Each structure stands twice: as C-alpha cells, then as structure tokens.
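== Sequence entry ==
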Amino acid sequence: MTSLASLVTPIDRIAQALAFIDRQHDGKHSHQNQHVANALRKIATFWAPVSDADLVQVKIWTRSPHKRQIRMTTKNEAMLRAVFDPRTEQALLDLPDVLLEAARELLPTDPVTAASTAMRALALHIVAVLPLRLSNLSKAELDRHLKRAMPRGPITYIEIPGNETKGRKTLVYPVPEHLAAVMDEWIQKFRPHFSTEKSNFLFPGKKGPA
C-alpha cells in the first residue's frame, strides 16, 4: 500500500475487502464490516481520484455491507444511482423550501391545500436535519415533545420519552434556528387550517395524529 487511494483504486478492491470481512464472520452482520465500509467510502469520496460513476457504485456497496446476502435488484440499484446524482440530491434538499413557498402562495386563496402542502414541507424539513423515527414524528405533541427555552420563544429542542422510543431511552434533539422558524410558521399560519378538531399534535388529524 503506497497511499490511501490504493485502498479504493481500482474500486473492485472495495468489494473484495468487504467480501473478505464477510467470510471472516461467516456472512453474519459485523460492526467491523460497517466501520471498514464507512472508511472506504470516505477515502473514495475525499482522497482518491474516483470518477463520479465509480463513486456511485462505491456508495451502493458501502451503504449495504451485506449486499452479497441481500443483493439489490437492478431496478433498485438504478434508483439509488439516480438519488446519488448531484442534481437529484440537490432537488431533494430543495424540496421542503419549494413546498413551503408554494404553501405561502396558496394560503390566501386555498388555505386547506396550503396547509396540507406546508405540513409536507415541515415534515421533510424535520427529517432532513433530525434523526426522528416517523412514528415519533407523527405523534409529536406541541407541549409534551416540542420544548421552548422561553415561554414565548422559539422551539429549541424535541424530547422523546424513553417509553416512546425503540431503545427505551429518552432522546433529546436540539432544533436548529431555521427549523424552529418553519415550525412556528406552520403552527401559527397553516396548522389552524389543517384540522378543525381540537388537538395538541404537531400534525393533527381528524381522529388523532396525521
């Protein structure tokens, strides 16, 4: 080995390394495989002269260390490659803001559609920056889970009690300033049009959380 790049060029070396570790663990899940996969992906991304096309393949291999046991179909691999395309990735990142702007424009003439659009925008904003499970997000309540450092200040963190988490541990996620602003805009301007039922859920539905 003469450099970090030699670990991932040609890129077939990545597949060979992960296959070797799989064999060492009899094909069973291993943290070692995941750690090596993550390291190789970072090397290929930041250190090696890997082409964009090869980097897509590297990401597919290293996102699924057990690909030799659970092989993705050609169709699914093609879908992943599309997501890894920089233009597609940027479009996904821009989507929450695009939806929110559309909701703002709709609000004066069609508040119900505007509220539905804003709800999707906020949900995407949240999952883009916070590792919340969808079940916790859909059941989040304004005062019980969404906390404010000051009574009339912005939302500063989300707290999920241990009895509501998969690992039975209380989870606390700081809320970035830009996300807090979107949350408050949803609560004040759009949420009242989303449901006429009295509810404390962030995303209220007719019979509970949306």
